[in-house]
Amino acid sequence: MFGKNELYRIDFVLVASVILVVFLGILTIYSAGFDPIDKINSGLYKKQIVWFVAGFILLIMATFLNYQFLGDYSLYIYAFLLFILTVTTIFGTPIRNTRAWLNFGIFSIQPSEFMKLGLVIVLSKYLELRERDIKHMRELVIPALLTLVPVLVILMQPDFGTAAVFIPILFTMLFVGGADVSHLVSFISIAVIAIVVPMFITYREWIGAQESNFLLNFFNDPGLIAIVAGILLLAAIVTYILHFFFVHRLYRKIYIPSSVISLGLFFSIFIQKYLKLYQKRRILVFLNPDLDPHGSGYNVIQSKIAVGAGQFLGKGYLKGSQTQLGFLPEKSSDFIFSVFAEEWGFIGAVVLLALLAAIILRGVQISFESKDKFGALLGSGIVMILFFHVLINLGMVLGIMPVTGLPLPFVSYGGSNLLMSMIAVGILINIRMRKFVY
Amino acid sequence: MYFFLALNSLAFIIILLQLINIQLLQGRDFAERSRMNMENNIPIPAARGELYDRNFELGKKNMVVVSNRPSFNVTTVPASFRDNKKMQETVRLVSRLLKVNADVVLGEIKGRNPWERTVIKEDVDFDTVVTIATHHDKFPFIDWEDSSVRVYNHANMFAHVVGYIGVISKEEYAQLKNQGYRHYQRIGKNGIESQYDRTLRGRDGYVRRVVDVHNRVEGEEIGLEPQAGNNLVLTIDYGIQQAAYEAMENYQGAALVIKAQTGEVLAMVSRPDFDPNAIIARNNFDIIQMLTNDPKRPFLNRVIQSRFPPASTFKIITAIAALEDERWNPATSLFCGGTFTLRGFVDTVFFDYRAHGSLNLYWAIARSCSVYFYQLGLRIGPTVIFNYASHFGLDQRTGIDLPGEITGFIPSKRWKLRVFGQSWYDGDTVNLSIGQGFISVTPIEMANVVAGIVNNGVIYRPVLVREVRSPDNRTVLQRFTPQRQREIPISPSTLGIIREGMRLAVTSGTCSQLSRLPVPIAGKTGTAQTRSNRYEEASQHGWFIGYAPYDGPLEKAVIVVVFVEYGRGGAAAAVPVANKIFAKMIQLGYF
Fold it and tell me: Are B1 and A176 in contact (CB < 8 Å)?
């Protein structure tokens, strides 16, 4: 499909970085699976090697196929993946109470991983087609629906962390696609208000805070919130109607924020009322693991101990006591970076971080230089998938972000994420290779 | 698009900063916490030093007063359990097996650091430990350690001398934790065990165990070898102690035998007593409670912790005061008609137990004539008597190596004015001159009075420990040397007169029972009467103070003090006890 000239355009820096990172990952999975007492290994690293080989084949295939075909078939790809995802959610084998895996006997697949890629492809195509009209708010409805449907399906598995990562991907895609920033900010604000208000109340109830003042009483009274929200909504409607007759920027400055606050407050009442206490508490623990030192808080503390104990030079390969003696949980998957940082220290952690940054920044550059809008959107979507995974995973491991259970791309043990990431890199190489072809 | 670059770079910089924070800035703390995760230090208790009687000889069969018996402790580290409920369940289960009160154990666990090892039961037999070891699934994180139980071989006989050990209390721990004491350790609570705790305890070692998250052992090594405590050779002679203990069998009171020229205590008995073996068991509050509430106060070491009027034994002090201060001629005779009337606003009559007729000082001491001393006391006045009582240290601790010693009490004119609002009356002086009234002494102080008389005014500090020996007994680490505690400026002739009087008391006076023994003994008796009910026989406390041999070499001189509370006939009870003690010493070849 491409000649000798095009072969030279394969991004060898990107490929080399990916291979190196995966190699470090396999090395670390070997260490994580090693039991120094019984002197045996869990053998996960062998499986990861197989996944890597399979992933590399898929990567090559992804570079062969013109990425523009992905755009042409985007809806079918999306629909197919959504179908598989739904089937998994209903009929999948539950592992740790989550129906996220399709079991094929010797291996299993997690369709929600590929759904991320499917969403990025379909959003890229949609935003390319609607490039001119995207400033209108109504054009945001379809991307929102395209995102929310798989998110709801994944929430039913239930896999909170994976579902959550779709949201920032949607917003960055819309941003790159040229959506009105004020719209995006408004939606984010509504969501933040809707979440923060009930969480604030739940948190205060949990820790048994007693003091009261005007603001606290207000937040504790749904009736008052409803009245204020209603007044703001009325003001928004009035100014919205007025702005059709008297064209003035002032009206826009009133109805946008007041409708945002009003909707946020309404949703917050809704959440406060219809979410069970344990559900609200689960969200709170998600936001702040320290509230549950025996649960997810324990994991974060052990992870920080592992990373910190690595110090500058690390404890040495296969010599990380946090890892080898089992104090670190989920060491092959979610907390793989802690294993690496414990054994290789700050030096090793910086090298791994640099390699991951190289992959991501290379991806940003590729989408910059893409010859068409679709390529740019697709590239940046893919970069965002990788970026948010890296950010959220490392943030969790280092104790500065909620515990989500998202894997570290290329490094964590897990076939589906590795395959998806390899395909994603293949698509990036593909976009770069074809930037000169018209 | 540049927005992207900025977002990515910012994220990576934040992560890098957090890496620097955790790994470089806080790295040392986290490394320490990682070490704490995997290291589990298990103490190896040091063997506590043994106690022997004075006749200890290396390689011979010795009289072991206190020793140790190997045993097991069942322990747990509460924090090893991930959740509290599982911990409580397991502790309850193992408590049922060990037959201990689970609530008490859980209460103890609650009150301290969950990472510290808590002992669930001590002195567990081997079979029970095997049961726990073979059911590790039922008893997760329940551990055991080698330990030893203190054995007081002669139970009650040495109770007040050696004392006992007990679990370190919260207050003691708070005070001593910086000096190497641990909350699970025992500490001497009384007697030699308390006084020489640091010598006896040694230093615990520990095994450093590397464990994984499920407490599986990855490796162990000895972190610190335990250092056994040193052994003590007591000054107590088992034979004399046994004789004194048995002689006091039916009495409440104290008996003390001291070498005059060194201060070495050869026997120290206080009755009633207790069995230290019963007290050292863990969580036996009821036994301790019972002993503590006993109105006879068995925990009290009456030799050093009880205070009574010295009664007629004090006449010696009055005599010394008169001889020294007034140049009283001992040959001067005074008449005793059985009573003495003190002239005053209202005449007061003081009684003697019989009419002695006319007698000199020697006979007054020998027959314990009170009327003689009433007159003597009035003549010299109370201040001189106070001074000599004070010279002999009757208001000071003797400094014996035991905790909790109290002092006797010497009144004074100012004291009486302050407490009673009255001046010192002649009647008070009359009482004082025969050791009644306000003055009170401890038995060990009276032993020092005799020591001063025998040693020409020199009093040595009483001691109970002769040698400190290394754990294998081969090296003597410290040998006791006599310590002069006080030198009383008294002329030898005065002391000679007193000794003569005391000898006369044995040959033909109040303690003539002792004259039948083949060693010349000198002594003085006393019958203390409490003010409230002075003529009831049961309220009379009997004293005997004395020494032997009367005219032998000084280095052989041994002092015996016997004090019997509520003894029938007062001194009549104390002398037979002294008789048995002297008889035993003769048998043992002391003279």
Answer: yes
